[in-house]
Q: What sequence folds into this?
């Protein structure tokens, strides 16, 4: 019996290792490519580790292409849009979770239908609207778009977390004289903090990875976001400047890795806590 | 009281005049900024464009050019959105097929009256044709064009005793097939071919096959009562038959090429798996120079001869949108960008050909290094591709031609079925645009 248990654990461990290798391989390949000279990238005898290490790709990516500014732009836009999304979604989710009215169904319908429109369909009207508000070619305009883009799903997720908070706690706060705003900010928000972290990260990643709005709405190269910047390394017929592209992608990944490192614990518990209703 | 009113009026007038002169000074002192979208992406090409822009900006403080680099994959959606939203760059870089379509929709400035005589007469007539609409309007300056060349591995040729052809005595397709047989080898003696005579990059086959087919007299698009119709007859089938025979009968062409583009075959080319890469864009030579292993010896063969060596070609273009704010200044910059020296710099940076005859005559395009002398010779055979001005070509290409070519080259449908479906399905698409 014990031997069976040990074998099962060994098999599970082996599967886990294979899965981790499967997940990590593209990243390892990306890091390796970023340190390879062009001759080693265009070869049939490709190796996981570079035979000759070079920093030329990083010099290319960092030097001529001003990539750090684009990383900074993306970080600013993604962080502010994630914070703004949470600022709007938290009270919204509270109302959706606690006030059962016919509006809730309409909101649910809006959330679902808003996800099915392809970007290309709405980009021109959106551009014209932002143009009238003088928000084209500004980070503020792009942040606004990302907030609207992420809001439905964040709202949907957050209301699940809010429903998990016992109503009795809010009633006790109300008895002590707290108003709705105080209840949301002082009682509910701290209790759904893991949910806020999880949904905030979702909004952050959404904005960080987005390409098309960034491409169309920002005209000034100084305002460019990282995804638009990285696309410039692409060429034609499946070709790209692979070395600088890999190096640029590594540089672009660092800020989001830092954010993940800080918020990882909150993210994991947030995902778990949202999955079970009390 | 009357006096003070007069004084007040004079003061107001003075203030107004001063204000107007100040605003005049301000507008005279403020440079016009024109936004220029460039699609140059290879290292040397980016450097060449940036150098020309910097030179212009230094010499023209009143007209400053803002260089914006964009990629080929995004430009179409970007421009369509910009046109519709009427927020356009002053100049954009693209290619002749879509700009004819943009021009027909009224998105572009007709440059016919703005182009200098020097530019008009020096750019080759075939290049002008690629950007001229049916109404005579010129929708862009054609500044670069490419031909399809044949790259070869010099060591494998020498080893097999195959002598490369010369410009004066180019190979026919049949001679290339014979050479491919000599160059196809089972080096390990295990019954498997390790070295193929050729590999055709057929991942995006439409333009490549159409362009090369013109040498056989196969044009695919024909005029019927003033309307374009698709026809796939013997002339069109001739090239396809050669490609299929080499891949599936003689097995001298590697099947790797069915799913890869020409440049994606480079790792195999460098490793000696393919002796020749026919039908590859002339620009791809830069990738060899940057990526080939040390000591790799390669060369360029003259264009293969069918009935003729003719090749269809499109050009890379510079256009001014009709909604651009600074058309006059944009045109001034375009004349500078496309002058003899600068056009040559841009072409060399991208390893393409300039469309100006005087630029093409420069020694840089005649040197042996990089295969320029033979590659440049291929430019003589470029001609306007007949499908370029066919409305609906892009839809036909993506929805009908590409999938059918892919099925044909994967040997899933016969040549006759391919021809029949190209005609029926293709003409159905074209009819919607007539």
A:
């Amino acid at each position: 019996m014990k031997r069976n248990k040990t074998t099962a654990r060994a098999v599970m461990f082996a599967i886990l290792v294979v899965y981790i290798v499967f997940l990590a391989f593209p990243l390892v390949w990306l890091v390796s490519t970023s340190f390879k000279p062009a001759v080693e990238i265009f070869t049939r005898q490709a190796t996981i580790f570079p035979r000759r290490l070079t920093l030329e790709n990083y010099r290319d990516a960092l030097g001529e292409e001003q990539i750090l500014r684009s990383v900074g732009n993306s970080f600013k836009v993604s962080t502010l849009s994630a914070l703004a999304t949470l600022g709007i979604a938290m009270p919204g989710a509270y109302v959706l979770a606690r006030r059962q009215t016919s509006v809730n169904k309409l909101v649910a319908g809006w959330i679902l239908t808003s996800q099915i429109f392809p970007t290309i369909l709405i980009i021109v009207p959106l551009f014209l609207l932002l143009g009238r508000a003088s928000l084209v070619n500004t980070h503020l305009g792009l942040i606004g778009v990302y907030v609207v883009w992420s809001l439905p799903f964040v709202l949907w997720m957050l209301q699940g977390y809010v429903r998990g908070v016992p109503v009795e706690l809010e009633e006790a706060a109300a008895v002590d004289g707290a108003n709705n705003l105080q209840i949301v900010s002082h009682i509910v928000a701290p209790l759904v903090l893991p949910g806020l972290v999880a949904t905030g990260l979702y909004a952050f990643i959404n904005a960080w990875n987005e390409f098309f709005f960034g491409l169309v709405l920002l005209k000034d190269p100084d305002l460019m976001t990282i995804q638009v910047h990285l696309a410039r390394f692409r060429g034609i017929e499946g070709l790209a400047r692979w070395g600088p592209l890999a190096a640029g992608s590594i540089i672009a990944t660092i800020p989001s890795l830092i954010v993940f490192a800080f918020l990882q614990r909150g993210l994991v518990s947030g995902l778990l806590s949202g999955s079970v209703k009390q | 009281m009357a006096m003070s009113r007069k004084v007040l009026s004079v003061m107001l007038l003075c203030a107004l005049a001063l204000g107007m002169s100040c605003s005049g000074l301000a507008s005279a002192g403020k440079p016009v900024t024109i936004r220029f979208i460039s699609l140059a992406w290879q290292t040397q090409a980016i450097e060449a464009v940036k150098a020309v822009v910097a030179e212009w900006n230094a010499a023209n403080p009143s007209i400053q050019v803002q260089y914006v680099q964009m990629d080929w994959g995004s430009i179409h959606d970007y421009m369509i959105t910009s046109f519709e939203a009427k927020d356009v760059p002053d100049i954009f870089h693209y290619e002749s097929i879509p700009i004819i379509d943009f021009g027909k929709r009224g998105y572009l400035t007709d440059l016919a009256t703005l182009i200098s005589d020097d530019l008009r007469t020096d750019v080759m007539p075939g290049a002008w044709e690629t950007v001229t609409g049916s109404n005579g309007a010129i929708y862009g300056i054609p500044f670069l064009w490419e031909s399809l060349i044949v790259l070869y591995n010099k060591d494998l040729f020498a080893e097999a005793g195959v002598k490369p052809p010369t410009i004066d005595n180019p190979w026919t397709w049949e001679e290339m097939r014979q050479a491919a047989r000599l160059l196809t080898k089972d080096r390990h003696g295990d019954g498997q071919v390790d070295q193929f005579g050729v590999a055709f990059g057929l991942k995006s086959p439409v333009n490549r096959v159409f362009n090369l087919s013109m040498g056989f007299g196969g044009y695919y698009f024909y005029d019927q009562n003033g309307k374009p119709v698709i026809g796939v007859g013997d002339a069109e089938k001739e090239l396809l038959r050669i490609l299929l025979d080499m891949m599936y009968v003689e097995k001298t062409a590697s099947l790797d090429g069915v799913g890869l583009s020409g440049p994606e075959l480079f790792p195999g080319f460098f490793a000696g798996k393919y002796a020749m890469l026919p039908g590859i864009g002339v620009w791809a030579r830069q990738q060899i120079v940057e990526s080939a292993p040390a000591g790799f010896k390669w060369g360029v063969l003259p264009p293969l001869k069918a009935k003729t060596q003719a090749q269809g070609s499109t050009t890379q273009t510079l256009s001014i949108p009709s909604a651009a704010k600074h058309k006059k200044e944009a045109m001034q910059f375009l004349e500078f960008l496309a002058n003899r020296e600068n056009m040559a710099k841009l072409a060399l940076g991208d390893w393409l050909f300039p469309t100006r005859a005087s630029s093409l005559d420069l020694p840089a395009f005649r040197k042996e290094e990089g295969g320029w002398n033979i590659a440049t010779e291929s430019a003589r055979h470029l001609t306007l591709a007949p499908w370029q001005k066919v409305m609906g070509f892009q839809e036909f290409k993506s929805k009908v031609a590409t999938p059918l070519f892919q099925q044909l080259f994967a040997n899933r449908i016969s040549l006759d079925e391919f021809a029949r479906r190209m005609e029926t399905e293709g003409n159905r698409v074209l009819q919607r645009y007539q």
Summary: The two ends of chain B are 77 Å apart (CA to CA).
